[in-house]
Specification:
By secondary structure, this protein is of the alpha+beta class. The protein contains 4 helices and 4 strands, in the order αββαβαβα. A two-stranded antiparallel ribbon has the order 1-2. A two-stranded antiparallel sheet has the order 3-4.
Length: 105
Amino acid sequence: MPSPRPPRLIENFDRLSVERAIAELRAGRPILLIDGDRSGLIASADSADLRMLSALSALAEGKAHLVLTERRLARLGVQRESAGALALPRLDAERILALSTKPDD
């Protein structure tokens, strides 16, 4: 049984955590997202470079996903009413940038 959480010293800690995570992503740094016994290492496609992708690829062990908006998925021929994810068995910088940030024609 997990130990009880200590009392929080900061009001709105969860909101601050989300705001900090967004700031880290905007600054080009990956974040670790934890939900119970599941976790995911998140990085912005805008800041992906070869060094970061190489490190993430080693950690992902072929289980990486690229999360895209509904509009971007529609451009790729996937009809959804919300954002979704594409499996990426191999992290390729050019492919990630083409799928996620290339302007719509």
